[in-house]
Amino acid sequence: MMLFQRSTAQLVATVVIVVFMSLILLYQARERGPMWNSSRFPNASRPKDRLFVDITNNTLGFEKILVVGMPSRTDRRDGMTLQAALSNMEIEFIDSSDGTDIPDKALPNMDGHERLPGPVIGSWRGHVNAIREVVRRNLTSALIMEDDTDWDIRVRQQLQNFARSSRALTQPLQGYARSYGDPTYGLPPGQKDTHSPLPSLPELVIKDMDHLPITTDPKISPYGDDWDVLWLGHCGQLLPKLDDKNVPKGRVVQQNDETAAQRRYLHSVLKPFQYVEEYPDHARVVHHVQDGVCSLAYAVSQRGARSMLYEIGMKNFNAAFDLLLHWACSGENGRDYHRCLTVQPPLIQHHRPAGPKSAQSDISGHGEGMNEKPHTEEIRWSVRMNAEVLMVGGTDYVDQYPDE
Ligand SMILES: *[C@@H]1O[C@H](CO)[C@@H](O)[C@H](O)[C@H]1NC(C)=O
Ligand SMILES: *[C@@H]1O[C@H](CO)[C@@H](O)[C@H](O)[C@H]1NC(C)=O
Ligand SMILES: *[C@@H]1O[C@H](CO)[C@@H](O)[C@H](O)[C@H]1NC(C)=O
């Protein structure tokens, strides 16, 4: 009798567990949606939602544009003011300093390291001031730029293509709550996808802007609702490592982007320069941040600004700002992983005015001698280099990097 009761109870328990497990698996399958297969996506037309159109507004689809630099560099503020006016952009200046005004006490130092060089401190403070302002004013997003940068006359067109790519990589597929065009996206950092083998690299690369996955329209930002940082201006980015435990691996490649200079004009501080090795001329590649240098321009969402204020402003200040940003993106050196996207070639780059090379940076030496010809690195129809054409309403633009 006792034996019979025991086995009945066991049977009932087993049935309950089996039913429960099946329900969980069924629910997970529904939530995860279909597996990635680029041929599955029909020709997707350009997005038509209102937010997408906002990318053409005076703040490029962000809530504000903040420009970081030292107030004493009036030359740079003059240049930025004119560029912004010629581009129909509203900007606000945020002060950085030479670092001498910031006492040791104000520098988070968790391991007793030596005080970093003054210009590194001043630049870090300028960026953190901008990020703090985004948090304090509760801005939904802001583009933060350094004051010696420049961009293409066609920046709005470029940003719309960037937004289509960032949506493809980070917005849920239409009709699914937690399924993404990039199967390596959406899992909590560090958690390996155990349900399916990781697709090989060719399957993780969307090679054609006409076949982007159809995703849910974002509600907060034209660039998608699930990003922390968009690193749009830099002097080098590595492609995501396939064995990295944090960084999602998906990429979107826009072929034949005439606004991208040919590879022979491009350079990278980070070696190897994988982009020029792997992609043809005029390809524009959007991917997650693995390792980047030079914080020339980046956007933060409100969520991203709060995280960066914490990770970069409040944790151990033991490296230059761009290195801290890289660590907070890829989740290294005591910083947590965050969702950061970038683009190669970059959309915003250094402008180098004519004059003594020593004037080009307040952080590191740029050598002796004169820079004879002003130029903006890697940008074809630079706004600064076309200022004279734009001011008289011309359209015969100077192409700094013509095709050969
Ligand atoms: C879909 O794209 C292919 C190649 O990209 C093109 O040949 C075809 O005409 C497109 N179809 C539609 C309906 O746009
Ligand atoms: C531009 O669009 C963004 C996103 O909708 C919005 O937050 C911002 O306020 C707009 N900027 C202007 C100047 O209207
Ligand atoms: C910040 O803005 C969000 C909506 O964008 C709102 O829900 C929240 O209450 C605001 N927070 C503060 C402190 O104003």
Automatic annotation (TrEMBL):
Keywords of the record: Glycosyltransferase, Membrane, Transferase, Transmembrane, Transmembrane helix
Transmembrane segments: 12-29
GO molecular function, one term: transferase activity
UniProt region (Disordered), positions on chain: 348-375
Assigned protein family: Belongs to the glycosyltransferase 25 family.
Name recorded for this polypeptide: Procollagen galactosyltransferase 1
Organism: Coniochaeta pulveracea
The organism's taxonomic lineage, starting at the top: Eukaryota, Fungi, Dikarya, Ascomycota, Pezizomycotina
